[in-house]
What does this fold into?
Amino acid sequence: MSATIMFDLDGTLVDSLADLAAATNRMLHDNNVAALPLEQVQQFVGNGLPKLVERVILHCDLSMDRHVDLTRQTLTHYNAGASDKTVVYPGVMQALEQLRDMGCVLGVCTNKPEAPARHVLKAMNLTHYFDAVLGGDSLHTRKPDPAHLKASFAAVNSAGPQLFVGDSEVDAETAQRAQVPFLLFTEGYRKSPVAEIPHTASYGDSAELPTLVTQVLQSLRQKT
It folds into this structure.
């Protein structure tokens, strides 16, 4: 039972928080600002790197006039070590293998800039699973704008049901606005309780994903 499935990257396929925090804290060090704990940086993740830096600026009482420069500094640090501490979540590779064997077409729709997103996928040996990768700078907009997700689906040019897999409130809003079923990975970077995040189905172990996809697709067929 096949479908076209788009995946968020950070917090869904890979745990990249340590590298994001390292880049953020190197930027702060360059500007004589004390480092932030990992848990604090996690609260700032979502909506892309520029938004992360904006939240850091507000938290650290820096000047918003420096947003562009501090974002550039953070991205430079991140590009230099985007996969140093990043790891693939358990069960992800097996799930992607099974989904491909089921005939599913897979892609990535992430707010991470496209170049580091592709770097992380390559470093984690995930690139070959995906027919398209759209980052937060691939278009003039990004999630939660549904145009980002719709463009990602269009990039693979595949027929059949469409599903989106992510871990956050931003991903849920994107799917809702695009009117696409949303599968929520509960062990990522969400800030709200699972019950408060709109989703079609949820999972905490990526090994469960192929079975969950099959169940969702069967449900969709029964409705048509």
